[in-house]
Write a structure and sequence with these properties.
The complex is a heterodimer of chains A (439) and B (235). With 439 residues, chain A is of the alpha+beta class. Chain A has helices at 2-15, 17-45, 85-94, 131-134, 147-152, 161-168, 218-223, 241-246, 262-281, 296-302, 308-338, 340-348, 353-389, 392-395, 402-419, 421-428, 434-438; strands at residues 56-61, 83-84, 99-111, 120-127, 139-142, 156-159, 177-180, 183-191, 214-217, 251-258, 291-295. Chain A has 17 helices and eleven strands. Chain A is elongated and about 95 Å long. Chain B has one domain (31-53, 74-234): P-loop containing nucleotide triphosphate hydrolases (Rossmann fold, 3-Layer(aba) Sandwich). The chains are: A alpha+beta (439), B alpha/beta (235). The interface between A and B is medium-sized, with 27 and 32 residues.
Chain lengths: 439, 235
């Protein structure tokens, strides 16, 4: 009977094209608005590294204490987003995790070997060799540098496929040389496409991806006095110059550790507290240990990776969808009540209540399907509009996945069927004697 | 075939109870053609809706084809209606979205018959009413008489035990009405049991038997001959 009811639904929709178009438009606009914001929200709040998000941790150490938090307000637990170079080095040297890396964003001027290409600036991430296996970074050519390169402050780089395309025409560039700030660096690896969104490991800089063209050893960056291109917040005095800065209590380093098991995480927490207690004992901290260890999801929540405005926008969009569905429900009710005669005749000819219920609900589903498809088209238009209105970093989010497409259509069908329940219930109440008595 | 004994139908509001049928008894035998007449508001349509299992009754007994229908649920009533009763409505009540064949198909769909069987029955019933050539036409493309013939074909397709007709010629001009009545008489000659509600005394006398309803009760016209003239005057 499904095919029969489906056919009847199509005939019924053709019967009153204007009413049908209004219903589909109401649902489509609601789905379009809610899917546009939801797509953005999901991309912004999604798990950027689902296979490892429970094994990757960001340690935070309060090195300012309660008296200096007013300089740059921290989060609700008075933690700053980054840590000091001093603490980062102590964590690296203690090596309490399976893998760990201090890191920061910097930048250099690249002079291509090809004289036809002009020099240009590149975004650089200074990190340790563990950065790549810790974050499961895929390689197209070559491999990460090794721990010995970290120790030797080697002139090696790993580059993104985009930079490889730009400078080397996409060829395997491993072993080739890049001139950065008038110094030659050897390419040891070329990444495959890799862009976790949001860029959880450094939410200071371009948190929705991009901004990094190459990677080089953290030790090399420090040795070459490469300035931070991210936020650097300082509380208290520090000596001038590079050495003074890196030995200050300024916070500008991101730090991540890989802790595969819950026991590893618990052990690391103890280590952090012990470390902070030791700093208190030595007189550096005048407050009790105040540390935190957050996995990726906790980290994104702490750092408000998704702004409250976006959450409100999603809420408003879904409220709008609700209003659209109420409108569609009203139109469906009008349509079904206008067909009371037909329903009554069908009842007289042997249709039981379940048959009428099925017929009306399948009709609602067909309307929902059409509304969902229209909503999908409007979502594409909505995302295109966002691209023209918002910054480049948000633009990277505005793409529809197969899941999103399925979600839009399913949402249209399910929401419309729910909205169609009341009109359908009213249809079921139509008495079979109605048409006979109306004559 | 159809037997109602002391049947009553009351419509209740908070303050008043109105009887549309009271102590209503009628017995229609298999193969009979009975005309039900009566003035407006006498209870004819209520009788027809109860006879067609479109409405429940308040008291008394009703046996359809030997089975007591009291207390049946919606599913059982729908199935019984579909299998045993064919309706011919005054306003034809064809579904405008569906063509002639699909209109005739409606009760067969709810019967759950397979496609070849449905096609066979549609073809046969349309041939019976002389409209097999119009199977792909829509109701709006047919005359009133043709539409009523389609409605009759729809009623016949389910091979019902009882045909209930409500003013079957009420919306037709004289010539079309004659054609439809001839078709109904032909169906009766072929063995159908027919109960026809009508205002028209000329149609009523074409039935084998006339049952007159006044104020929700059957009046024995033979026992009260004065009522015959009065009743026909009212009609």
């Amino acid at each position: 009977m499904f095919a029969y009811y489906f056919g009847l639904a199509l005939r019924s929709l053709k019967r009153n094209v204007v009413l049908t178009a209004l219903m589909i438009a109401a649902i489509g606009v609601g789905i379009g608005a809610s899917m546009t914001t939801l797509t953005m929200f999901r991309a912004m709040s999604g798990d950027p590294i689902p296979q490892k998000s429970t094994q990757l941790f960001a340690p935070q150490i309060d090195n300012w204490g309660p008296t200096k938090q007013h300089v740059v307000p921290g989060d609700s637990e008075n933690f700053q987003e980054q840590i000091s170079y001093f603490d980062a080095m102590n964590l690296m040297n203690a090596h309490p995790a399976r893998r760990q890396s201090a890191m920061y964003a910097t930048g250099l001027a690249l002079t291509p070997a090809n004289p036809q290409l002009l020099p240009f600036q590149v975004g650089v991430r200074a990190a340790y060799a563990d950065f790549f296996p810790m974050f499961d970074v895929p390689f197209r050519y070559g491999a990460p540098w090794g721990a010995d390169d970290d120790a030797a402050r080697a002139d090696v780089v790993v580059i993104t496929p985009e930079l490889n395309d730009r400078v080397f025409g996409g060829a395997n560039s491993v072993g080739k040389v890049l001139n950065l700030d008038n110094r030659d660096y050897r390419v040891v690896g070329v990444l495959d496409k890799w862009q976790p969104i949001p860029k959880f490991y450094d939410l200071n800089n371009d948190k929705y991806g991009g901004g990094e063209d190459l990677y080089l050893p953290f030790t090399k960056a420090i040795d070459a006095h490469m300035e931070s291109w991210g936020n650097r917040n300082c509380a208290g005095d520090f000596k001038p110059g590079w050495e003074g800065r890196i030995h200050s209590e300024c916070i500008w380093i991101q730090f991540w550790a890989e802790l595969p098991t819950a026991a590893d995480a618990a052990h690391y927490r103890s280590f952090l507290n012990n470390y902070a207690a030791e700093q208190q004992r030595t007189g550096r901290f005048s407050w009790p240990p105040h540390t935190r260890l957050s996995d990726v999801r906790e980290w994104l929540v702490h750092q408000h990776a998704v702004s409250d405005e976006v959450r409100i926008l999603v809420l408003v969009s879904f409220s709008f969808l609700f209003v659209c569905l109420l409108n569609a429900m009203g139109l469906m009710l009008a349509k079904i009540m206008g067909r009371s005669g037909d329903i009554s005749v069908r009842r007289a000819l042997g249709a039981n209540r379940r048959a009428v219920f099925s017929q009306c609900l399948i009709e609602a589903g067909v309307i929902g399907l059409a509304g969902g498809l229209l909503g999908l088209a409007l979502t594409v238009l909505g995302l295109m509009a966002l691209r023209s209105l918002l910054s480049d970093e948000v633009n990277r989010l505005t793409h529809l996945s197969a899941t999103d497409i399925g979600l839009a259509v399913s949402l249209g069908v399910i929401a419309t069927i729910i909205a169609g329940l009341y009109p359908t219930w009213r249809a079921v109440q139509v008495q079979p004697a109605w048409q006979l008595k109306a004559q | 075939m159809l037997k109602m004994t002391n049947l009553s139908k009351a419509y209740r509001t908070e303050v008043v109870e109105t009887y549309a049928l009271r102590d209503f008894s009628i017995h229609v035998r298999e193969g009979e053609f009975v005309a039900v007449t009566g003035p407006s508001g006498s209870g004819k349509t209520t009788f027809l809706t109860i006879a067609g299992l479109l409405e429940e009754f308040s008291g008394g007994e009703y046996q359809l084809d030997g089975a007591d229908v009291r207390g049946l649920n919606d599913n059982q009533r729908s199935r019984l209606r579909n299998e045993k009763i064919g309706f011919i409505f005054q306003a034809f009540n064809l579904i405008p979205d569906l063509n002639v064949a699909d209109n005739v198909d409606v009760p067969l769909r709810y019967r759950g018959l397979n496609a070849p069987e449905r096609r066979r029955r549609i073809q046969e019933s349309l041939e019976r009413v002389g409209l097999s050539a119009r199977a792909r036409h829509y109701p709006s493309e047919l005359s009133g008489g043709q539409q009523q013939r389609v409605a009759i074909a729809r009623a016949l397709a389910g091979t019902p035990r009882l045909l209930l007709a409500d003013e079957p010629t009420g919306n037709l001009d004289t010539q079309m009405a004659r054609g439809v009545m001839e078709l109904i008489e032909e169906l009766h000659r072929d063995g159908a049991t027919i109960v026809m509600v009508t205002h028209d005394p000329e149609l009523a006398i074409r039935a084998q038997r006339e049952v007159h309803i006044v104020d929700g009760q059957v009046v024995d016209l033979m026992a009260a001959p004065r009522l015959v003239a009065g009743a026909h005057a009212q009609l």
